[in-house]
Structures are given as structure tokens and as C-alpha cells.
Amino acid sequence: MNVYTRVRSLAGMNAHPALLDHIVLATPDLEATVADFARRTGVHPVPGGAHPDRGTRNYLVSLGGSGYLEIIGPDADQPEPPRPRPFGIDRLTGPRTVTWAISPPDLDKAVADAHAVGYDPGPVSPMSRRRPDGTLLTWRLTSADTAHPSGLVPFLIDWTGSAHPTEAALPRTPLLDLSARTPDPDGVRALVLALGTALPLDTGPLRLSFTVDTPRGPVTFT
């Protein structure tokens, strides 16, 4: 069995961490990163929408089920935002998988449970954007900017009864793997488990990576 066949055989297993909502691939050059994703995978991400006053917009790809990939970067149609763009975009020199998000059944309870074990995921804030078809999406989330600095502990999101991004027709690259390396796997693992999910962790220099199944075979992004 070659590597490609072996990896494809794993696709029948649940590669999605519990409660996965989306993975964030941030970039300082959105159009170039979207084009690179399409070149490597044969799948073209579709526009998601702009984030008003944050200076960003995104493109989306389904990861199967209710999970999706968000490719996010500067929005040339917006003026410079009053504060730094999220996910450290202004400091990036190239695209990077920066973090991931989960959608717990009760966001406020999940925040309280995290506090109970000594982890503060940050304040909960409302956000919104419009899809290209005009549909307004609304959600509440804990900011990735105030989450664990490694990016390996997911931030939390609640779609507040709004349509979910995966309810639109998105191109699909099924998720085969989401994993990470960190100098402190035990410390990070405890926080991830406290949020009701899990992430395979190895010891090593900090890295978050994911692999998707595509028409051109498995492709990994870091």
C-alpha cells in the first residue's frame, strides 16, 4: 500500500477533532494564497465575505461535515483598520496555519468550564459579515488574539442561530489530519482537553498543520 492509498484509507475514519468548526490559514497576501491553494489542490476556494472595521476578508473551503477552512488576509477594499488585523496578519511574511476554532454546544458554559481549570479563553464578542449573496451571518466568539499564544488551543465560536458557512455551496477538500508540534505538549493538551476536544501533539518546534484530500492527492498546509 503506497502512502497516498494509506492516507486515503484513513478518510473513512473521523479525522475531525470533536466540535471542530474551522481551521484558520492566515496570509499577508490573500489573492496569492488562494491561487496557491487552487494550484496545489485543484480546488478553488470561494469568497466568504469582508469583516467590517477589521481590514480583512476571507475565502472558504469545506473540510467535510460542518468543518471548513478559512483563508483570511487583508482586504484591499477597506481602509487601514484602527487596530492590528486579527491572527497576527500584519506581522506575517507568508501564509501560515495559525489556529483553529471549535463550536461547543453552549459557548458560555465552555468558557466557564475553562475558567474552572485555570484557563481564560478571553472575552466573548459579537461579529458579523455578509456573504456575497447578501446573507447576513452573525456569531459570537472568543478572540484568537487573547487565546493561548501558541494558537494550538482553539478559540470558541457560536453561530447564534445564524446560517453556518458550510450551509452555502462550498468546494470540498475532506480533512485527513489536523495535528501540531509544541515544546510543551502536555501543557497544551490539558487545555485542549478542558475545552472538550483533542489535538494530536508531538514535541518539537511550534507548528500547526492540516492535510486535506484533493483531486491531486493529499496536500499538507502548515
From TrEMBL:
It holds the Pfam family Glyoxalase_3. It comes from the Bacteria. Residues 19-155 form the VOC domain. InterPro entries: Glyas_Bleomycin-R_OHBP_Dase, Glyoxalase-like_dom, VOC_core. PANTHER family: BLL2707 PROTEIN (PTHR40265), GLYOXALASE-LIKE DOMAIN-CONTAINING PROTEIN (PTHR40265:SF1). This is VOC family protein.
